[in-house]
Write a structure and sequence with these properties.
heterodimer; A: alpha/beta; 7 strands; 24% strand; B: mainly alpha; 56% helix; globular; membrane (chain A); P-loop_NTPase (chain A)
Chain lengths: 212, 408
């Protein structure tokens, strides 16, 4: 399906915090209580609408384990948005946020929009990290913040869409160079037709593409 | 023990693997007789066992696997202690991670297995992993390791599985068990040169899409245990890999990509699309055909050949990179009479400059000059692969130079 823009996202965070479940809830609107773990990187996509424009989100879901870091790092490059996820029922996943953030900032482009997500908000009784702590961390590091539940779907749409809105605004403000794909933004085929700068390379093949 | 039930289910169904029903039965019986004979020979005829593990249908039943897999890995069963070491879960640095991963591994257990039985096996799975890691502090746990261990557990039971997994971890899987996946990335770099040699068009298409090789990461480090849902296929592949060179999973990965030639060529030339296509492994692959093709490719394009053909900067060449693919890395040889015996035979044959005695399966028919794509008789493949695998290997990278190609 034709889109005006394509935004590339990456989902990062400790293992088992629900990264793949958030993606599955967002792309397929379903929840898998026992989700098989992600080895390397997986990929999902969905179309959303912002400001009347069709935007395709291309989302890279990464393995959380430390050993895979050298592999997943290369996917930061060329991401316009990142969802940094922790599990509100596991304090250690919150404690590791700084490392994740440093890693992300170091390997991504400086304009990348980062959304901090405290996932598993449905498990209130097992909560170890207060919402206020998440908010404070986000404020301190200039991130957007939300608590979500991949299980109940609470705030999942919002998390992905608000990130996209932020990126979209940055485009409007001219912060992003949209002709540079390294920024994780691609102009869709319908726009490309009127935008000769994008005609080269694979542009022509895009018209029929886009399965998602 | 409650494990038995699941094993029986498997044994009775796995006989259909790759062998047609009617004349399959007689073939199967013949094969089983041959395996029994090889096991009863003095010394045990490991070359024949290797050939059986590679050839159509693999090792047929889990009962046979229990006897043959230790031989393929050169683990003397009689030396395995009856009682396993107690595992100290407290204060274990890996325990939490392993627990999390094992809890999520429900899909690896046969559907329909009673919860209680499955939970018992999950406890054993945790213990095996922790035991091996505690005995080998140089090894680092990685997610996906448990996908391999669970296969051994389900086939062999806890005691045998522990011994074999330990051997495998210090050898075939060694490179994956570094603190980082850097060496694993090097191993993945062997994938594209294989594809290039067989089908330059597919290669070109993948290069243009800049798809990289990460789509094959889970295939490699779990020996496909993570991505195949039918357990029978997984164990069939394990028969094959256990009998072969540690880089064989890469050849098998290449064969899968090549088998999907049409899909790859039709795919939108886009990294994400291509990654998505390739990482979704079809569940109805013709395993026997692909296994035989992977063997062919290995013989035609052995790792040393691949390393030669590609312009690259080799940052590091280990001593064993000079290892000629079907020769034996003699320094790695363990004091095992069977292997010593085999090796002398092997060296004798190499000295004679020729391969002999196809019956025994010790011929090395590889000619370095041959570049064309030939279909080799299963015998030939088996023999060459068997010879390669005969040496007690250390790790894949000690067998082959690192290819430092940046595909991503």
């Amino acid at each position: 399906m034709a889109y005006a823009y394509l935004f590339k996202y990456i989902i990062i965070g400790d293992t088992g915090v629900g990264k793949s479940c958030l993606l599955l809830q967002f792309t397929d609107k379903r929840f898998q209580p026992v989700h098989d773990l992600t080895i390397g990187v997986e990929f999902g996509a969905r179309m959303i609408t912002i400001d009347g424009k069709q935007i395709k989100l291309q989302i890279w879901d990464t393995a959380g384990q430390e050993s895979f870091r050298s592999i997943t790092r290369s996917y930061y490059r060329g991401a316009a948005g990142a969802l940094l996820v922790y599990d509100i029922t596991r304090r250690d996943t919150f404690n590791h946020l700084t490392t994740w953030l440093e890693d992300a900032r170091q390997h991504s482009n400086s304009n990348m929009v980062i959304m901090l997500i405290g996932n598993k908000s449905d498990l209130e009784s097992r909560r170890e990290v207060k919402k206020e702590e998440g908010e404070a961390f986000a404020r301190e590091h200039g991130l957007i913040f939300m608590e979500t539940s991949a299980k109940t779907a609470s705030n999942v749409e919002e998390a992905f869409i608000n990130t996209a809105k932020e990126i979209y605004e940055k485009i409007q403000e001219g912060v992003f160079d949209i002709n540079n794909e390294a920024n994780g933004i691609k102009i869709g085929p319908q726009h490309a037709a009127t935008n000769s700068t994008l005609a080269g390379g694979q542009g022509g093949q895009q018209a029929g593409g886009g399965c998602c | 023990m409650n494990l038995k039930k699941s094993r029986n289910i498997r044994s009775s169904s796995s006989c259909l693997d790759g062998i047609g029903r009617q004349d399959g039965e007689s073939k199967r019986k013949r094969k089983m007789a041959e395996i029994t004979q090889a096991l009863n020979a003095t010394p045990v005829n490991v070359a024949t066992l290797r050939r059986m593990a590679i050839s159509e249908g693999g090792l047929i039943t889990d009962e046979i696997r229990c006897k043959v897999w230790p031989r393929l890995l050169n683990v003397p069963v009689e030396n395995i202690p009856e009682k396993l070491d107690e595992v100290n879960r407290e204060n274990d640095k890996d325990y939490n991670q392993v627990l999390l991963d094992v809890q999520r591994s429900l899909r690896r257990f046969p559907p329909g297995m009673p919860d209680e039985q499955r939970m018992g096996l999950q406890e054993e799975l945790i213990d095996i992993i922790l035991r091996v890691l505690q005995n080998n502090p140089q090894l680092h746990y990685y997610q996906g390791y448990h996908d391999i261990v669970v296969t051994f557990l389900l086939v062999l039971g806890e005691r045998l599985a522990t011994a074999l997994v330990e051997k495998l971890s210090t050898h075939h899987l060694r490179d994956f068990m570094d603190p980082t996946m850097d060496n694993t990335k090097h191993i993945l770099n062997y994938l594209m040169p294989i594809i290039e040699r067989v089908n330059p068009e597919v290669y070109e298409c993948m290069q243009q899409a800049e798809v990289g090789t990460i789509f094959a990461l889970s295939w490699l480090i779990t020996w496909f245990g993570h991505v195949l849902s039918d357990f029978r296929h997984v164990v069939r592949l394990y028969d094959f890999f256990l009998a072969c060179h540690p880089l064989m999973p890469i050849y098998f990965a290449a064969v899968i990509v090549l088998y999907r030639e049409e899909e790859v060529l039709e795919c939108e030339c886009d990294m994400a699309m291509m990654h998505h296509l390739l990482s979704q492994i079809p569940q109805d692959l013709p395993y026997e055909t692909l296994i035989s093709r992977a063997g062919d490719l290995f013989v035609q394009f052995p790792p040393s050949e691949l390393a030669k053909g590609v312009t690259q900067e080799c940052t590091q060449q280990t001593a064993a990179s000079t290892f000629t693919d079907f020769g034996l890395a003699s320094a790695q040889q363990r004091p095992d009479t069977v292997l010593r015996h085999r090796r002398r035979e092997q060296q004798q044959q190499q000295k004679n400059g020729n391969a002999v005695d196809p019956q025994r399966g010790t011929v090395a028919v590889f000619r370095p000059g041959a570049r064309r794509l030939v279909r080799l008789a299963v015998m030939g493949i088996t023999v060459a692969l068997g010879a390669a695998a005969l040496a007690v290997v250390n790790s894949a990278l000690e067998w082959a130079p690192k290819l430092d190609l940046q595909f991503l």
